[in-house]
Amino acid sequence: MDEIINRLRKVRKGAMFIIEAPSGTGKGTVIKEILKADDNIKFSVSVTTRPPRDGEVEGVDYYFVTDEQYNEFLEQDAFYEYVDSQYGSRYGTLRSEVDSFINVGQDVLFDMDWAGARQMRKKAGDDVVTIYLLPPSVKELRKRLEGRGTDSKEVIEKRMGIILDKISHWDEFDYVIVNANLQETVTKIQKIISGERMRRVRQVGLKGFVKELVKEAKEDA
Ligand code: 5GP
Question: Cα torsion for 41, 14, 20, 94, to the nearest 10°?
């Protein structure tokens, strides 16, 4: 029986969890907590042309590239999805970050905007699960953006300016959580992840397992 369970685990199809939120909602922290607690989910490191913020690490938070390097990725068709951001920087998800994991039952977590989530849904359909985090209030959001102390006043105003536009896309997402409390939000997302893992379409090994059960039942009779 153990052998069968192990085989089942291996043939499970990975899911793509996309988390989006207006900047300052605490998305980065939530993502870090989810990854820390679960070895079966891998972060998809995006490519960006924006400069690193304090504490951000190359290859961990992003692959930081120049416009020229980004253009090369575009020419090579290396992106699963990409977006020229409203902040004047460009972002993209490399195919190499995704494909090899999904097929061996490894889930992948994406920090991605609504435009990217749309593209992913088009390409990967049911493999994609989208989660939107809302801030508890705009006042709180501004406080968090300013408290971060990493973006200039101009960038903060720009980010504040597009927040309403971003929020208008909340109803394109499968799950919506108001991030009022970090630990509660993390727990809610963990529940979503474990529920989605159990969906029949993801458990592609079930057919064989049920076959074995039926065979065993017949032998038992
Ligand atoms: P930030 O510059 O604050 O790290 O990210 C700005 C926005 O770009 C966020 O909404 C983030 O989710 C989004 N983003 C980061 N990486 C990607 C990506 O690979 N694709 C898309 N479409 N959006 C991304």
Answer: 90
Question: Which amino acid type is present at position 47?
Answer: V
Whether 91 and 1 have beta carbons less than 8 Å apart is answered as no
* Ligand 1 near 113 CB (within 6 A): yes
Q: Residue 113 C-alpha to ligand 1 middle, in angstroms?
A: 5
Give residue 119 CA to ligand 1 midpoint distance, Å. Answer: 13
The best mutation among 18, 46, 130, 131 to test binding of ligand 1, ranked by most ligand atoms within 8 Å of the C-beta, falls on 46
> How far is Cα 129 from Cα 73, in angstroms, rounded to an integer?
26
> How crowded is the C-beta side of 78, counted as CA atoms within 13 Å?
15
Burial of 131 by CB count in 10 Å (0-12 exposed, 13-18 middle, 19+ buried)?
buried
Report how far ligand 1's centroid is from the alpha carbon of 215 (Å).
50
Cα distance between the two ends of the chain: 18
pLDDT along the chain (221 residues), means of 10: 56 89 87 95 95 94 96 95 84 89 88 93 93 90 77 80 85 96 97 95 87 92 82
What is the distance between the alpha carbons of residues 30 and 133, in angstroms, rounded to a whole number?
A: 10
* CA-116 nearest atom, ligand 1: 22
HSE, side-chain direction, 13 A CA sphere, residue 217: 6
For residue 42, what are the β-bridge partners?
A: 108
**How far is the centre of ligand 1, averaged over its atoms, from the C-alpha of 46 (Å)?**
8
* pTM reported for the whole predicted model: 0.87
